[in-house]
Amino acid sequence: GGPRRLLLISNSTLHGGGYLGHCQQHIQSFLGQKVKRVLFIPYALHDRDAYARTAREKFESLGYGLDSIHESCDPVEAVRKSEAIFIGGGNTFRLLKALYDNCLIHEIRKRVLEDGIPYMGSSAGTNVATVSINTTNDMPIVYPPSLQALGLVPFNINPHYLDPDIKRTHMGETREERIRQYHEEPNTPPVLGLREGTMLLVEGDKATLQGVTGARLFLRGKKPTEHEPGTDFSFLLTDSNPLNP
């Protein structure tokens, strides 16, 4: 066993760069040299073969082998044998439904929280690492049995967080307004809005904001606050949260 280790990335691709290009050094320092192979979970996209090819190419270029869980005849066993897990982006509802359908919620939690294997998520893969997927930006194209997610951290994240554009005439709700609506419900945990190019590194009881663009933190009943890369978010890990399974 060992302390939980998570790298929760807002987005897989940053404008002007390739797949995971903006965070590949973070990935290498996070996985280190002990990890030889990564178990990839491509359930958030429909074309799993193509998605696995993209991920495999990237991880092999960084010096890691990659096995895609959809190619395994026993997904539960694949998780039990994994050295590290990476869940990619796509549709969060589709992803969470597949995790439930394949009986992987408990197995992934155990590997990460009890056995201490590294967990990486980007976009939807970051959403499912949190308490619930209530703060995803995605459309509910399928119906998972629950919105409760892996609960690897006791708060929620909004990946691809967008600031309001004061020049636009679009009158739809801003991301901030939608998160505030979520916090109008009782017992809702903090929400960390991760802008593109930002990620949260969790090592044991320490959480640090990394990347280039910063984040916005929403606490129920309080004004949102702005945070630069390097911010220590460890206090979010100790907040008791009744929703955490």
UniProtKB/TrEMBL annotation:
Any single Pfam family the record assigns to this protein:
Peptidase_S51
Compartment annotation: Cytoplasm
- Cellular component terms, GO, for this chain's entry? cytoplasm
Q: What class does this enzyme belong to in the EC scheme?
A: hydrolase
Gene Ontology terms describing biological process: proteolysis
Catalyses which reaction(s): Dipeptidase E catalyzes the hydrolysis of dipeptides Asp-|-Xaa. It does not act on peptides with N-terminal Glu, Asn or Gln, nor does it cleave isoaspartyl peptides
Return the InterPro entries for the record.
Class_I_gatase-like, Peptidase_S51
Q: What is its EC number?
A: 3.4.13.21
Q: Keywords assigned by UniProt?
A: Cytoplasm, Dipeptidase, Hydrolase, Protease, Serine protease
Region annotated Disordered sits at: 222-245
State any single GO MF term.
serine-type peptidase activity
**Which PANTHER family does the entry mention?**
ALPHA-ASPARTYL DIPEPTIDASE, PROTEASE S51 ALPHA-ASPARTYL DIPEPTIDASE
The family classification in the record reads: Belongs to the peptidase S51 family.
Q: What does this protein do?
A: Hydrolyzes dipeptides containing N-terminal aspartate residues.
* Protein name from the UniProt record: dipeptidase E
| Origin species | Setophaga kirtlandii
